[in-house]
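dumping these here so i dont lose them again. two proteins, back to back, each one seq then structure tokens. dont judge the mess
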Amino acid sequence: ITLDVKLPDASGWRILDLFKNDITLRHIPVHLISGEENRLLAMHRGAKSFHLKPLKAEALDTLFADIANYGKIEQKRLLIVEDNELDSSRIARIMDNNGQIKIDIAGSGTQALEKIKETEYDGIIVDYMLPDIGGMELVTEIANIRKTQPVLIYSARDFSSKERTQLKQYSSRILLKDVSSLDLLLDEIVLLLHIDHRHLLPENQKLIENLRSKNDVLTHKKVLVVDDDVRNLFALTTAFERYNIDTITAESGQEAMRILEENNEIDIVLMDIMMPEMDGYETTQKIRREHKNTSLPIIAVTAKAMKGDREKCIEAGASDYITKPVKIDQLLSLMRIWLYK
């Protein structure tokens, strides 16, 4: 699909979002065309390529060659840059899909750069913390070698807001390594490589369907959203309504405790960390001590991505962690994972 951003009756961005959030359509490559420079935004929203108007003959040749090649390539190529052999083997195992994806592994940044110079990959997974080259230096060098190479950062490191802004110049996605992150990683790579999920192994196909289906475990689940900012409460409540999720809100930790004491039907909690008086850490600890359901999923939501935040949230008793601004599709995927568990 070639898609112009400015259409007479609809926004091209909105149409792109509809495609990439529809499980039956999202594998179809969308090549975005715009009169304004929005390459980074296009790639972050799932476009296969971005072309600035007016298109020159060389750009058109590249575009049509890309379109013609789609479907001819039977095997996608993926590079995993990871120095931990256990992590790289786990990633490779879930990504392989009976040989549908040809996987190469680089144990260092230097080795990765050598492979990228020799091979044009459909996607690259990069661990930020490597022994020989800094993560920012590596992704910058990858961009210098192959400007349009899709890169996904997959790391246990908590990035600051400044670091995330810098990394977004060179990567399509940033994912935190966590207990549930392999499932999310598979989902992101399937999207990044434009693979039809129906061609995956049955167990991976089911996993993607569970993460993406609207008629799933989220329907009529009760979610307690704890946040002192009413604008955030309104935004999440509005988003959840589209998925038939029942939302209960609390503007403080004390109110959240009262609601949980009175309501035994809460299925999952979204906990804002930065709240006055009793913050999210303290509230989470109190829930873990006092609530009857010890396995109640609690997802910590924080506005700052400071070093150590993730560890502090997990130590306080949170099940998982996500940073603001919250991307609703990633949040829903995370909620599905914990509700299926």
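---- next one ----
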Amino acid sequence: YVGDARVVDDRYTLSVDVPDGLRCGNVYYGLVIPTRDVYSWGSVSLQGTLTSSFAAGCDGAPGGAFTYPFSLVRL
């Protein structure tokens, strides 16, 4: 996936549309649901969150979002 991160007030944000972002049931053969994934991280702390949003969930569940923390490391 390709995108450009933008920085505002020392915080980077990158949005990516992922066609198979949410996998339902069998991870290899189950239904896939597109997601909008937004990565956001501090330019100094390098700590961030990924928020993965979807319009509809698995098995007819309503849409929603999952949020995951992450850390970046300078090499």
